[in-house]
Amino acid sequence: MRMGAHSAFTKGLMTRRVAYAAGVVALIFGVVSLPDRLRAQQGPGITSPTKFAAFHPDMAPCNAPSGLQRRLIFAQDNERQFMQGAARGLAAAARDRNVEFSIALADNDATAMMHGIERAFAEDVGAVVIAPVNTFLVAPGLQKLIGKGAYVGSIVPPPATSILNAPQYLTGKVLADAAVAYIRHSLGGKAKVALLTHDSLQFLAPRFTAMRDVLRSLPQADIVADISPLTVDKNGGAATMRTILLAHDSIDIVLGADTVVLGALAALREAGKARADQFLGGIDGEPEAVAEIKKGGPYKASVSLASPIFGYAMGQHAADWLEGKHVPQGMDILPKALTSANLAQYEADIADPSSVYANPTRRSAYLQMYGNICYDTRDRYVNFPWSSERN
Fold it and tell me: Which domains does the chain possess?
């Protein structure tokens, strides 16, 4: 991909920020890239990258855990809308399955989350779903829970009995495909593109590899900025866009996570640089992004990872585990490009995740499940960065 004339200047302004961003972003998303150290400390489980077969829910039942409470705790990293959706889905599933549910909000405090996991172990909690602040700190506690017989579901990083992930390359490709179609049909094949990345995170970097690959098909689409914001939130996106605008008077395309792209949109509006013919697109399907799409302005698309639906599924799996049933070792939440044309059905689905989960056809549009594990085979928990896209 050709870089714009001022790309080197923009990247130069950000070089010293990227190293710092790696640490901050890892803290926020809880996916610290320490796989070798983790494996050395954690010991058992499946540590070698493994491709799991399709999940078979009808396998013979296992024993149910004994001595554990029918409780599900969501160890939640922060209150961004994406995680609030996951919490809502978990709560609905727990209510439907008569499981006590609570949230342990860490508010981005890794130590507080670690202590919360230790309390769950001491209180014989039967199920924990976690969105880690710092994987390395919580890993020993999660392993103790697994050894005790609890269900541990993790949103992206190991260790866990069951890992929720997205096919990250496909997720980025879905968004980039929508952007390229817009550039071809509405911008005459020419555009200045800003990528707001998370390349410091090994689990999310494939999204941006896909975006670059897809954009390469348009020789006149110049990636004029390819930058990791200091923080993965609206403030980080706004600050990064202000820096980009110092080098580039106009930007046509902005791609990244919804929360940072929303911040970029705020900065564009602040500078009087927002235009109706721009294409701003994000990942996560956050409500504010959906609201912007409905307005019909610069925000054109969001790739949803339907957090209420995967939250509901993980809550159902927690209840199944406590009853001695099999659950998947890995589960994809499939990316879905949201546009003004399909928002109504999507909003109906996330408002009622139980109906989606109960209908195999509707469920398969959002979720794919792999591998089998239960209480009796818990020593086969996932202790490597699982992705269905691994060869």
Answer: 7-27+168-304 (3.40.50.2300), 31-165+307-331+369-380 (3.40.50.2300)
